[in-house]
């Protein structure tokens, strides 16, 4: 009986030791809610990135990577509480997420309090790696300034007048602020700004204010729409016939479902974070082929970003020899370069923002493709994008 008891104790200790050796990562993201599509892409990409970077083992230095999923439901209070739970009760080594900028801003102080890493993807607001940043925050996703500078390159020109329509929260306001800053010195003027609640579905009043502000202006007139999720402001404002005032609509890239609506805008130019046909590298080739095989569709906007995040985690752990000590990881990740489906990315040491390419596109419509195709005008490399450091 004693031998059996001793054997059982040894087995239990072995299991506990094995569990303790796991590298535990929390993915705290809006699995349900308005940005559910973004969340699924991000998680699928994360798992594919870890798979690719570990050669299919899902291990680093013999230790298994375990992902614990937590659903914020796109609520800031939930994000804060779930991250506290992950660091405290689950004792994760680091966390990834969330989808929403508003949720991310609620989560940043938690990382600082627990002195644990939070790798932000895909939340975009500049303030995440700007005014609200702390040294435990890294971001693999692009920020508002990267969107804005790339979009400004695509839209700017002498005697161009621009009005903006954006969501009335951190993503929209940070985005417009960065866009205006990026336009300085280009001869392009922002003449009007509109902000609307994130759940807006009727854009009539906002559009009429924009039309009234622009209809009597000379020069080339464009409305830049910065919007995430539903509502379809691009299509609804186009239905109001802005062309009668000589006004064109413009926006940045989006997920494939949203690109279906772009088929009404052949020739429209803008900037996009990712479209599966734009990057030319082995990692993207693998992602496109694997995603098509497993999901019967090409990878989407946030799938590539999720994969970049998974690859960043594995690269950092390889650099530390599997050591998950926070200070060791920070030292390894500051200035770290790693390959992604978008090519090489690099964490800027000053604010831990991932520097990366963006893509200037022009919309082409093909009747045999269900969405509009953002053809490449030019890859905008890290060197092409002077992104301000905003955490000082």
Automatic annotation (TrEMBL):
The keyword Lipoprotein does not apply. Keywords: Amino-acid transport, Signal, Transport. Residues 23-364 form the Leucine-binding protein domain. GO terms for biological process: amino acid transport. Residues 1-21 form the signal peptide. Belongs to the leucine-binding protein family. PANTHER family: LEUCINE-SPECIFIC-BINDING PROTEIN, PERIPLASMIC BINDING PROTEIN OF ABC TRANSPORTER FOR NATURAL AMINO ACIDS. This is Amino acid/amide ABC transporter substrate-binding protein, HAAT family. The lineage of its organism: Bacteria, Pseudomonadati, Pseudomonadota, Alphaproteobacteria, Rhodobacterales.
């Amino acid at each position: 009986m004693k031998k059996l008891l001793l054997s059982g104790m040894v087995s239990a200790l072995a299991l506990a030791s094995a569990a303790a050796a796991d590298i535990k990562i929390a993915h705290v993201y809006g699995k349900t809610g308005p940005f559910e599509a973004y969340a699924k892409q991000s998680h699928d990409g994360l798992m594919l990135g870890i798979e690719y970077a570990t050669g299919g083992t899902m291990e680093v230095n013999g230790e298994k990577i375990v992902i614990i999923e937590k659903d914020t439901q796109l609520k800031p209070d939930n994000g804060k509480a779930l991250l506290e739970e992950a660091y405290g009760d689950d004792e994760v080594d680091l966390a990834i997420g969330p989808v929403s900028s508003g949720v991310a801003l609620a989560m940043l102080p938690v990382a600082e309090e627990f002195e644990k890493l939070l790798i932000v993807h895909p939340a975009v607001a500049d303030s995440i790696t700007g005014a609200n940043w702390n040294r435990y925050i890294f971001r693999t996703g692009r920020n508002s300034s990267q969107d804005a500078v790339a979009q400004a390159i695509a839209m700017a020109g002498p005697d161009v007048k621009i009005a903006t329509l954006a969501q009335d929260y951190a993503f929209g306001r940070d985005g417009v602020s960065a866009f205006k800053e990026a336009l300085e010195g280009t001869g392009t003027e922002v003449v009007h700004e509109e902000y609307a609640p994130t759940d807006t579905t009727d854009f009539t009043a906002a559009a009429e204010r924009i039309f009234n502000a622009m209809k009597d202006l000379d020069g080339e007139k464009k409305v830049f729409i910065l919007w995430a999720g539903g509502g379809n402001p691009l299509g609804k404002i186009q239905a109001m016939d802005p062309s009668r005032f000589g006004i064109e609509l413009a926006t940045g890239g989006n997920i494939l479902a949203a690109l279906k609506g772009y088929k009404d805008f052949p020739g429209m130019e803008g900037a996009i974070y990712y479209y599966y046909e734009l990057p030319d590298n082995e990692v993207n080739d693998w992602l496109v082929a694997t995603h098509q095989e497993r999901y019967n569709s090409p990878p989407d906007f946030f799938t590539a970003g999720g994969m970049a995040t998974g690859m960043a985690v594995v690269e950092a752990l390889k650099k530390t020899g599997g050591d998950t000590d926070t200070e060791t990881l920070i030292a390894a990740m500051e200035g770290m370069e790693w390959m992604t489906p978008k090519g090489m990315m690099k964490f800027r040491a000053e604010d831990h923002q991932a520097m990366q390419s963006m893509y200037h596109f022009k919309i082409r419509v093909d009747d045999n493709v269900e969405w509009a195709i953002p053809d490449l005008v030019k890859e905008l490399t890290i060197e092409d994008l002077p992104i301000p450091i905003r955490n000082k």
